[in-house]
Fold these 4 entries.
Entry 1:
Amino acid sequence: MSTGDLDQFTAWIEELIRARGYDIDSSRGGGKSRLADEAGVHRAAITRLLQGQSMPDLETTRRLAHVLRVPVREMLIRSGRLSEEDLPLPDLGSAPSAAAPPLRLTLEEAAAGLGVPRDQWDMFIRVAGQFLPAGADTDAARVASE
């Protein structure tokens, strides 16, 4: 990754963080600490990212994506770690083939995609999970680990 790529990613993530209501401009705003707490990462990782010093590791990227309600795919592509060719979107216009299992969202991805506030995810997952067919838990866990 070039310095220019890191600068572009940093500018994009700063804008996204501000758009999600985190005050990262004021030293007393607490936005960096709040974001770090909600994502379950060290504040230093947020600071290094916002200063363009380093790219977060994969786990930090995943956690930030969920808190910021952005697909992990988009974070990985915008960060320059992977390309759109590396992470193609499924062709939703055709019927699933017998060889490929149907694409399933995890309940966490559904919550993020629907805009459920992060502090209500546990309740959403418990309630929505009651409507899944038997055995879907293993599929959701498999997709979540990928």
Entry 2:
Amino acid sequence: MKSTLSLAQYVKKRNGVPLGASGSMTNMLSRALGASSFWGVWQYWNPIWGYYLSRNIMRPLASFLPVSLAILVTFLVSGALHDIAVSIIKWKIVLFFTPWFGLMGLVVIVSKAVGISYGQVSWPVRALTNASFIFVSLGITYFLETLYA
């Protein structure tokens, strides 16, 4: 079933405050880092970006691909768009975010498939766990970049 939420409704649902409201960044970071799973991080992280990725990439792909593949492609598209933006700013081709986001997408898929959840632990432990997934995948990406540079 296709959601009919507007961007403003979606952001309020994810952040708990209206679009552009004071505290929206704090709420987003708190909810994302404090999510009970790595999948959950991406339900709250950057809701404006997530709204458009979900609406224009994830949902259309999930209509004919397995959801796990649609998730991976959505992460890759997000990474590629970040790479394009940085490439324009630096006036040179950058290919860093695509593999990093792809790796995080794989972590999301695998952790969701095996049911990794840590909602029973305190917020600081959840935040440390979620940040660890992000930073370990970042470190792996840097490592791989040095191997192929």
Entry 3:
Amino acid sequence: MVVDKNGFLIAVMVTVAHIHDSKAAYLLMRVLKELCSSVKVIIADGGYRGEIARQIRDTSGYVLKVVISGYDKQGFRPIQKRWVVERTFAWLENDRRLCRNS
């Protein structure tokens, strides 16, 4: 899922269960490139670090800024800009049919 700085949905991709999110991200970035050329930096979680970040940067020009929680070392502290994505997830989970926790 890709959201803007206000948490509004820009692009989403649903895959089958055996495809890892980091592998599907490459395809989502190609779609995003066609939809929204003004995006420069994408904030992602730790699952998108390494080779996939380099591949996306080289092919689509997006910079993946990977943020990793330091919860083990420093205790709970909100991660900058991560709250935007978490709020979007909360909006989606308000609809019980979409909620995976029910």
Entry 4:
Amino acid sequence: MKRRTKIVVLGSALLLIAGAASAATASDAPRQREAAALTGTARLYRSAGDDITFSFDAHLAAKDKADPMKATGTFRFSHYLNGSGARAEVEVDCLVTGGKVAVVSGVITESDLPGAEGKRVGVTVHDLGRHDRLGYSWASTGRPGEGNEPPKCVSSAPFEKVKKGTGDFTVVPWQPEL
């Protein structure tokens, strides 16, 4: 009887060890890095006190590494001054990053800016830690709904400064096989 108890205990111990090993293997397996990403929220600096906010949640999956137009996600922006302004939500249609710079574009899906829904816009972000910079396509094409639409993944240079203490954009650099 003692021998049988030892075998059961030993068998149970082996099952526990095997289960722990397989659980550790599953959770410790390295996750595949996404091909590119742009995330975060920040407010722009304007001396007049404008409240301008941009938020990004844009991603290019590793499996789509060769095609930045398969990027997914959304971004939002708003601009208010003295109680007037507008906001928009955009569905991402392209994301290209290089180093700490990202260009993302998409089509406005929801906005209170007249004529903006259904129009493409682009934004450029330079991830400089707490001193991020940002640019947007309508700086040269006219405000969304009134001007020309840029093609996918096109924007302006990141000429705007992020308001001190709000910069937290993160750019995951794209590394295509060339």
